[in-house]
Amino acid sequence: PLVSMKEMLENAKNDHYAVGQFNINNLEYAQAILQAAEEEKSPVILGVSEGAARYMSGFNVVVEVVNALIKALNVEVPVAIHLDHGSSFEKCAEAIHAGFTSVMIDGSHLPLEENIALTKKVVELAHIHGVSVEAELERIGGQEDDLIVAETEAFYAIPSECENFVKETQVDCFAPALGSVHGPYKGGPNLGFERMQEVMVLTGIPLVLHGGTGIPLKDIQRAISLGTAKINVNTENQIMQTKKIREVLETDREVYDPRKYMGPGREAIKETVIGKIREFGSAQKA
Ligand code: G3H
Ligand code: ZN
């Protein structure tokens, strides 16, 4: 069933695992991720960027498709549909009214006070609807869809500001920028674990790690031990799907039936998600 992230992330934080947010781009992504979660008996978050929602003909279509799949595939694990990097109050409101159970408002490009004011406004609306809210402080580098942040603009969040931000806004979970990057890492990630620990202690709420693609297992485990309860993965599924499809197309130059390459691509997404669910420790936690 569709639920907000509130309870799943509280449980994850208390029990020291993380719930994966896996972004969807089309039907195959939604199928693969829901099946992986159900097989692993794991709670799961379907991330939907504004760009991906546009590609799928809008928020309403996304909600209808996901609801229909939950029914058709007999999905019993908790599922949240979450707006990823919501760019404005209006977009968050649109997603909430379409039936999203969770939204992220990304005001990380704004001055602190404006980010707080915007996030507060989204929280007020969302909580009336039982929808959970995630927010971001300081900017996460790299590129995801239309969101591009240069290295020179990506600073590490300051713990005292995080404390104030969470207290003022009453968000349900919180993504402080601490060195993670959207898309593949050049070299390895350089995560600010000391600050992460401080932010955990000062805010007390589940923390979110964006840019989950390419973070080594030991860093994942350390982040979880420091209060990270949600990890976002997008690029890795795209890479594995595309690699598989390319392989099929290169091996069989005659193939034209989309199911013959989209099907194996879907399988590759599912396997990737299962691997992440196990790394994050959320298997058998539904
Ligand atoms: O918001 C989504 C994520 O932070 C995904 O990051 O594409 O590097 O896995 P990624
Ligand atoms: Zn992100």
Automatic annotation (TrEMBL):
Essential cofactor(s): Zn(2+)
Presence of the UniProt keyword Lyase in the record: yes
Pfam families, per the entry: F_bP_aldolase
InterPro entries, alphabetized: Aldolase_TIM, Class_II_FBP_aldolase, FBA_II, Fruc_bis_ald_class-2
CDD domains: TBP_aldolase_IIB
Domain of life: Bacteria
Keywords: Lyase, Metal-binding, Zinc
SUPFAM superfamilies cross-referenced by the UniProt entry: Aldolase
NCBIfam families: cbbA, fruc_bis_ald
Protein's name according to its UniProt entry: Fructose-bisphosphate aldolase
Protein's organism: Siminovitchia terrae
Organism placement in taxonomy: Bacteria, Bacillati, Bacillota, Bacilli, Bacillales
Gene label: fbaA_2
